[in-house]
Amino acid sequence: MPDSILVIDDSLTIRKLLELSLTGAGHAVQVAATAAEGLALARRLRPRLILLDHILPDRKGTEVCAELAADPATGTIPVIIMSAKGDDIRPLFRDRPSVVACIGKPFAPAAISHLVAETLRPTPAAAEPRSEPGTASFRPQDPATANAAQVIFTALRDRLALIPTWAAEAAGQPPAAFYARRLLTPEAVSRLLEGVAPLLAGARQPAESVQTSALTSALTSASSADEVLLSGSTAVLDLPALLRLLHGLGRSGVLELGASDRLVELFCERGEVILALPSGAAAEQAAAAAGLVLPAAADDGVPLLVAAVSGLPEGSEQLQRIGIAALLGMVAAGPQPFRWRPRSALPAAMLKVGRAITAEQMALERLRLVDDWTQVEAEVASLDQICSRSPDLAAQLRSLTLNPIEHRILTDVDGRRSVRAIVERSRLSTFEVFHVLYRLIQSKLVLPRSPAATARSVRSPVLCAGPASPLIEPLTRMFIGQGLQPPAVVRDATGVAALGGECLCVVVDADTCDGPAVIRFLRSSVATSAVPVVAVVDRFGDPAALTASGCDAVLFAPVHVSALPPLLGC
């Protein structure tokens, strides 16, 4: 008898996609477009699995899960949450043991089919040592594993103690899957990861104990390059999390992703992925598509694709495009097995052409493929939406490479312009601007804001001037008269940098400070590149140098302050 699966999603496209793909996999699928309809079907059908959209017209996913849990007839049905935010919403369900996974939209049919199959797969019960009902204890078997055992026990202790109370519910269900869903809740796994993190961090330091020495040795020493020290599946540890884990360990080696017939190798140098390349027949296909000729042989440890671009002026760019395309293909194909093989160091030829591939960059590449308008509208609601730059913008940009259009839109985001104004300013289509803003918001470079929140902004105007500047007193009166904060007075580019980009507008007294240097700094930073800048100079100054530096307007002293507000946009 086929497994019964209930899909609750208000998108007709998603319902049809899941109905076709899961029915084709041999499951019996029922669909509902609202929370009320879905709850009624769940109580009547008692399906083996529920696929639940996080945002529904009449209720949120958290509320639906709460109602399912409150009903004994549906409380133990496993639930997979579907959301455009993917694992970012996982903390919302930490108290719901029935929620077994979260999957980001859009997803490939193969990915959701694999996840459903893994969730429903019967697993033989593992032999467990007997213990007294209602109790749980552990005994370290050797000093090298004592810390790890303590961490695992502490993280799961509260859940382990509940096993006797769950026994009556387990009848007729595969025990391993049944108890895993209840033991490994998001909250328990979060505690587990928090406990393991110091052990991993300790493994990077000089060995000061038996446990640290053993872990460091396992991570850095291998009898051969073929020794596999870490393996698993991206169904459990997704690719971004895997990349962050390797970066945290700071080791060199090769991460093999996929099976032998379709394999991508990620080459890491001290924890940083510098190359991702398809292997075998896929490498030949990628080379042919890129117009490269693979050599018959290469130096030991150097992939043929690396040898093929040796000496080419754009070899690094070609390899990065090939690698990202291969990785995106793997992600679209669904969860993949992975294996980690350590190396003491990568060959010099690979270091020469390698470019860092971060987890954040991979996430951005996936966002560039999104064409579901409903996801875009969830982040960019209307043309009246106003966005501001993230306070951590500079730090975020260090791990991302934006394309020219993304950079252009980011410079137009200033916390005051509406999406409509950005569309007019950029001369791009509304569709394209919405998509770019969606990517910037999802990448945490931009924050959506309401017009009311923008009106409450406390960003200050800035005056860059020396202490004897005659502009300080009249500008202070002018800005206060405009209902704004008094200007923050700084002397140079260092003072502007200390403001962290939170400038409403900038007036530069070019007679008492190095005006061109300050303006060049403002224009070189994404955080201040779109801030209005007006310079004031006496008749002996050099207005051409100020204009060439990127100043919006140059006024000659003496200046009446009433001329400034229209130029500064305040």
- Silhouette: globular
Counted up, domains total: 4
Distance between the termini: 69 Å
Going by helix content, strand content and strand pairing, the class is alpha/beta
Order of strands in the sheet with the most strands?
A: 2-1-3-4-5
How many strand units?
17
The whole-number mean of residue pLDDT values reads 77
Biggest sheet: strands, sense, closure? 5 strands, parallel
Which regions have little confidence, pLDDT < 50, spanning 5+ residues? 124-146, 201-226, 451-457
Percent of residues in β-strands: 15-25%
Helical segment tally? Answer: 26
Give a topology summary.
Layout: E1 4-8, H1 12-24, E2 28-32, H2 35-45, E3 49-53, H3 61-70, E4 79-83, E5 99-104, H4 109-120, H5 143-160, H6 163-166, H7 175-183, H8 186-202, H9 210-220, E6 230-233, H10 239-249, E7 253-259, E8 262-269, E9 272-278, H11 281-290, H12 304-308, H13 315-332, E10 337-342, H14 348-353, H15 359-367, H16 373-379, E11 386-389, H17 393-397, H18 404-412, H19 419-426, H20 430-442, E12 446-449, H21 451-455, E13 460-464, H22 472-481, E14 488-490, H23 493-498, E15 503-509, H24 515-524, E16 533-537, H25 543-549, E17 553-556, H26 564-568
Parallel strand pairs: 1-2, 1-3, 3-4, 4-5, 13-14, 13-15, 15-16, 16-17
Antiparallel strand pairs: 6-10, 7-8, 7-10, 8-9, 11-12
Helix pairs in contact: 1-4, 2-3, 5-8, 5-9, 10-15, 16-20, 18-20, 24-25
Structure at a glance:
The protein contains 26 helices and 17 strands. By secondary structure, the chain is of the alpha/beta class.
